[in-house]
Amino acid sequence: MSRVTVTHQDHVAHVTLTRADKMNAMDPDMIAAIIDAGQQVAASEARAVVLSGEGNAFCAGLDVMSFAAMAGQDPHRLIEPRTHGDANRWQEVALVWRRVEVPVIAAIHGVCFGAGLQLALGADIRIAAPETKFAIMEMKWGLVPDMGGMVLLPHLVRSDVLRQLTYTAQPVDAAQAERWGLVTTLADDPLTAARDLAAGIAGKSPSAIRAAKRLIEVAESGAPRADVLMAESREQAALVGKPHQMEVIAAQMQKRPAVFK
Asked: Which CATH number fits domain 206-254: 1.10.3470, 3.30.750, 3.30.1450, 1.10.12?
């Protein structure tokens, strides 16, 4: 049974978790399917991505049966091998979306717990329904976040917030999540809002959007000031006067939508 579907429309890739009967809880098959979906999108000509879950939840975390299977394995298998650059396959569930070169927008509803939250953190932007609940759930099971959360969370929330969420495993509502930085914005219909935002991004210069995502990655990496400034200049030099930028200028002057080849 399919765990994830990928469809394309108007230069937007729609990636949907399809295990609705289990609140999109992750098992090994879904983990593999999410990574495969990210790789598919990365190899496509998509200009933006919408990541969502079918049914009553975005993702309830890891499937309980997966915990049972993991408990019987050699724990050192979580350390090696690094199957995806600097990450193992668990971590790649979130990090693959940062490797995708175009913006990824997560549309979140229901619950977004544990592995589901870390998946959502891999998106560039998170739009949530007001009733959504969020939790770093791993401490409930005597574990720590290990799916890229500790790479991604410190860029979004204060240290004290990160510590409270991690130590307690207590769910917070969407309004609190937005105040703390886990959520970009709230919407009564997050999927429609995410699709509208993706459509707007897909109408911008594809080369400039990709350059912006690369540049933000450098800026957030802690690279030296000189390296960030040089990255700005190099990305801009690669855009100025090129076909996409010239089409943007022509479209602005002619008051029409830009058409990119």
From this structure: 1.10.12
